[in-house]
Every structure is written in C-alpha cells, then in structure tokens.
Amino acid sequence: MAEFKLSGLSCAHCAQEMETQMRKLKHGEDAKIMYNSGKMVISDKMAMADVEKILQQEGVAASLMAGGHEDHDHNHDHGNSSLIVQIVISTILFFVAMFTDKYLPTWGTFSIYFVAAALSGYQTFFKGLKNLFRLKFNIDTLMTVALVGAFIIGDWGEGTVVAILFGVNEYLEGFGMRQARKSMAALLKVVPKTANLLKDGVTSEVPIDQLRLGDTVLIRAGDKVPSDATIVDGRSSVNEAAITGESMPVEKQVGDALFGGSVNNEGTLKAEITAIYADSSLAKILHLVEEAQETKTPTELFIDKFARYYTPIIMLFAVLVTIVPPLLFGGAWSHWVYEGLAVLIIGCPCALILSSPVAIVSGITRSAKNGVLIKGGVFLEQLAKTKQIAFDKTGTLTEGKPVVAKEITYDDANFFQISGMMEQSSSHPIAKAIMDHIGDTKLTEMEQLTTVGGKGLGGTFEGKQYFLGNEQQIPEASWTEQAREDVAQLKQDGYTVVITASENTILGMFGIQDALRKESKQLVQQLHHEGITNIIMLTGDHEKTAEKVAKQIGIDNYYAGLLPGDKLTKIQQLHDQNGNIAMVGDGINDSPALATADLGIAMGKGTDSAIEVADIVLMQDHLGKLPLTVKIAKKVRFVVGFNIAFALGLKILALLLALTGYLTLWMAIMADMGATIIVTIFGLSILFRTKAEKELQ
Asked: Predicted confidence band at 69 (pLDDT cuts at 50, 70, 90)?
C-alpha cells in the first residue's frame, strides 16, 4: 500500500465520494481517503493517472509520503489562498455592479455580475454540471442549479451573492479541519528526523529509519531521543512530555529506558537502540492517534447515512415548492421558482456532516497532548456515557509496593537496630519497605542469619537469638497479652504485620500496607464531580485491607478476595446490573477484565502491553488525567449534540420560511454559512487547553 498526503481536501462529503469512485477502479477495493488527517492510502497496483483524475475533479493534489511521514514541511494551502483572492475580487466586482447599475446598460451590469459569480463559483459550476449529467445529486449539484436558476429568472445580484457566499462557505468548511490537522501536525513535530550513530568511536548523523536494533547512539543536551533505547553511559534529566504529557523532567541513569521523541535536558548520554523507530512507543502512539481520528462514532455513521438520503429529498422538496403553489394555488411562477432555488441552497448538508468530525478530532488531539491516548472517537463517545468505573487496586489506586504505615515499639533502644540488621541484606519488597522506614542508620552485620520459609528470619548477635517475621516465627515465650492485642488490632485495621523479637521479649512490630497513590483520593472526588456515580475497587486482598483502602479514598463499592478470573466475572455482573462499565488497570495483569469491560483504560508509561490491550491509555504512571479526559469526552458529546441540533434546526426554520414564501437566496446561503461557522468554532473550541490543564502533573 502507498500513502499520500492530500492538499486542497476541504470537504468531508467530497472525500467520501472520491473514495467510493476509487474503490470502483481496478485494485481499488481497499482505497481509503482519510479526511480528518488529510491522507490517502491506495494499492501500489492502482493506476495513478486514474486516481489523480478523480482527485482533480475536486481540486485535490496528492504527494507521496516517504517512510510513513512527510519528507518536507511545505505548506499546501495555495489553493485556499487563491480561493480567498477570487472571493475578494468577486466581492469588489459585485459592489461595482450594484453601485453602477443606474449608469450602465443592462448587458454591462449583467457582464460584471456574471464575471463576479464566475470567479467565485466556476469550480462548483463545472463539478455540479458533471454531476447533473450523471444524475448525481450533491452540494455542488444543488449550488449549480441554484446559481443558473437565479441568473435565468433575472436575479443576477442575488445569484452573484450566492456564488460569493458559497465560496466563503467552502473555505470555512475546510478551515475547521485544517486547524484540527495543524494541531495534529504539532504532535508530529516531536518526531526526530536524524540520530547520531556511534560506531567504532566515530559519530555520524543518519536518518532515524536507518537505525537498527543494538545500535549505539549519542544523545547530546537538547537532542531528541531517536527511538526507544536503554542508557549504557551517562545520566541526565529527560523531558518525556511528548509521550506521557508530563512536563516535569525525569532523572535517568545507566540501565534506564528512554522513549523515542523525549528530549535530553543536560549532559550527554550513550544509549542502545531497543526498537527501530517504526516499532517505537512514539510511532505507535502517533499511528494510533491518526487511526483514531478516522474511526467513525455511531453518531457519525448515522449522519453519513442520513446525508445520503437527505440531499435527494431536498431536491424533491425544492421541486414541490417550485411547482405546487403555482399549479394548485395560482402562485406566481417567478416567485416560487425563486423559493425553490433558495430551498436548494439551504439543503446543503455540509454543516451537518461537519457537526461531529471536527469535535471528535479536537477531543482526541487534545487528549493526546495531555498524554492520554484514545484509540477512536467511538471510545471518546463511550467514555462520555459511562457512569461506573471499576479500578484494580494494586498498582492502580495504590503504588503496588509496600510501605510501613504504622509501628508499635516496646524497646526503643533495640527495635530499629535489630530489625535493620536482619533486613538489610534482603531483597524482599517488605524488607525494602522496612529499611526505607528505618533510614540511613549505620548497621553491623548479624553473626548468623537464616531464612525460615513462610515465616521470616532468624539470627544471632552477641550470643543472643533474634526473630523477625509473622506470628508463627515469634517464640511463645516472647509474647505478652498487650502484644497479642496490638497484633490483632493491626490486622483488624488491614495491615500486614511484621514482628521483631528476642528470645523472651517482643521489641516491636511494623504495620505494612500497599502505599496509596497521592492522587487516588482526589481522583475519586473529581470523578464523582464529573458525573461518575459508581466507583468500584476490585482486589485480590482480604476484606479488611480492601475496606480500609475504600474508606480512605471514598470508593462507592469494593470487592475483595478476587482472582484474575473473578475480576472478569465481576465486570460482567456489574455490566448486567448497571449498564456500561469502564475498567482501569495496569494493562498487564488486568488484561482479561480490561478486554471484557465496555471500555478498557490502561496506565503504565506507554508500555506495549498497555497500548495494545486498552481502548484508552494513560501514558503517565498515574491517574491524574483521567477526570480531565472524562470532562473532555463529555464536552465533545455536548458539542456534537449541539452542532447537530443547531444545523438541523436552522435548516428547518429556513424551510418553514420557504413554505410561507419568505425565504430569500441570501438568507438561505447566510443560514447555511452561519451553521458551518458555528459548528466549526464549537468543534475547534475543544482544542483549547486551560493554563491549569497544561500545568497539571
């Protein structure tokens, strides 16, 4: 398949028609015209001359894209600029004709109006004329009939206004999508073009598509990381905003992973390439964002279907408006022919077709800038409708690593020292949590240290025996009634208990728990504020631990003691009970539940598994952007609904005026242009990020 960048593509309806024509060509069954991203994908076997012939009918030009992205940054808006010049000249000629009407002969006035109309409307006229001969009724056909009809019945001035305003309308129709594409182009700017390849001690600059697995690259301060890599020498802070949406730099050292497209802030790094650019996280993200822009929502599919029947119905309605009043009620033919022409103009489906895509693309692009990858407009629409979200606990609402949350000390002099001496050489996560809690105390080594499976540790120091672990590891002689009560209370509160004791005394105990993420409590409050009525926690932990976490962060419902298969079953039950449900997890352990939920939301710093398994991916390693994404989804849904209602409402009002005989040509074109302007502005408004949003960490 070959990929082309299209310039001059400003009409969604026209894009659909061109794609339909291309699919009728030899080897064209898989041809795609992606209006939202301004691209065309066709088979290498297709005859390019036939493809270009179809494109030229709509004034569209195609240029081959190299390596999956444009090999230049030229601006292709020349066609739009010439259209503006033509409109300006036409407008000047219109006013000249209007003000000199009394002083010029009829043929002179007609000539100026004709030239003015031809300048703005000749492309539409020729396209519409071809369509008429093919009995194909679209917006160009409607405008051509209206334009010719206006001149035939002697309304030269109004016919010229129709041509000029339709030219403006055509420009505005493409303006919204051009702006949305520019926003997408801003995302593409993070793609590095070259890399400093280090080979045999010599550095050479090469295009990124020449990099291979295992190559070593030199990344200087200010350079972009060319592709996913691992640091083999040096340390620095790296800006990963292009991938995760986080503006705060991340400290990196030898062994740490780098994302392609991130920026080295200072120092020089040597890194080994772990993925060629086409397989890198950045390439996958950009590809998925582009694909997402072309995925039609149920609303868009309905509009497309509606528009196919809408235009022929408008043509029929215009004919009825033209002939019924004169034939049945004695109306003047000239007046009702005029009204019929006005109906043709107001029947333009452009504003209706634009109601959804500009808003959807804006929502997806804005979310991508925030580090949230949404794989399609359908998922954005789904998120806006969702009222319940289930969260996996470990690694999602919590950090997924244990911390000491509580301690009870009976022997101040020895508790920390003996605990540290026994845990300092262990790599167990709980041992690390205890050492982090104790701090940088200088500790000697235990004389003897043994591990007792399933219980804990035993050791000897200065001829005395010590024990660390669960209740079973502690000698019976060490226990006191108070110690047993304290252990019971810690367990009641949902802690995992680690006890340190000598042969005859308990020195103290630690209450261990999985650390809550800092944002979890605020996250739940914000989601409630955004209209999520049922927030659920799913966990394999025991009841008391789950209850404690749920109370701390304000969870509505929780289910404990669940195996991975149980989580899947619970998601199905919740769906059956309460309707659509979203599931948030880490994209690895929770993949069955994520796949089962109506909407799978994964988090995890852009890992391959997260990107592949979920419908929405939070590229940061936290949930802070989820409420904002819900808010954006709801705004997109509102804007799409408003745009559809406004576009249809304006047309219905104009059609009612036509039935009463009060609709004029300029009113019709202004109503149609007004609808296009409003739906475009509303759709683009979603792109604007607030200052607080940009600063959100």
From this structure: very low
Q: How far is 490 from 512, CA to CA, in rounded Å?
A: 9
* DSSP, res 278: G
Place of tokens 């979603």: 686
CATH code, residues 2-64: 3.30.70.100
Q: How far apart are CA 113 and CA 101, in angstroms?
A: 10
Q: What is the separation, in whole angstroms, between the first and last Cα of the chain?
A: 41
Residues 6+ apart with CB under 8 A from 102: none
The Cα–Cα gap between 667 and 342 comes to 8
User: Which of 363, 380, 361, 358 lies closest to 676, judged by CA?
Assistant: 358
Long-range Cβ contacts of 528-534 (<8 Å, 24+ apart): 528/554, 529/627, 530/627, 530/630, 530/631, 530/634, 531/387, 531/630, 531/634, 532/386, 532/387, 532/388, 532/389, 532/630, 533/387, 533/388, 534/387, 534/388, 534/389, 534/578
Beta strands in 494-592 (DSSP E): 496-502, 506-516, 534-538, 557-559, 581-585
- The pLDDT score that the predictor gives to residue 536 is 94
Phi, psi dihedrals of residue 265, rounded to the nearest 5°: -80, -45
Q: How far apart are CA 368 and CA 56, in angstroms?
A: 34
For the domain made up of 372-397+517-619, the CATH class stated in words is alpha beta
What letter does residue 504 receive in the DSSP assignment? S
Class of domain 400-515: alpha beta
Q: Distances from the Cα of 193 to the Cαs of 113, 142, 206, 208, 211, in angstroms?
A: 52, 46, 9, 6, 11
Element at 63 (helix H, strand E): strand 61-64
Among candidates 91, 648, 119, which has minimal Cα distance to 350? 648
CATH number of 194-281: 2.70.150.10
Burial class of 111 by CB neighbour count within 10 A (0 to 12, 13 to 18, 19+): middle
- Hey, what long-range contacts does 143-151 have (CB within 8 A, 24 or more apart)? 143/344, 143/345, 143/348, 145/341, 145/344, 146/341, 146/342, 146/344, 146/345, 146/665, 147/117, 147/121, 149/337, 149/340, 149/341, 149/344, 150/338, 150/341, 150/665, 151/114, 151/117
Catalytic residues: 392
Helices 415-423 & 429-438 angle (0-180, nearest 10): 140
Give residue 72's pLDDT: 41
pTM recorded for the entire structure? 0.68
Tens-place pLDDT, residues 218-260 = 999 889 899 889 999 998 888 876 666 555 677 888 998 888 8
Q: What is the DSSP letter of 359?
A: H
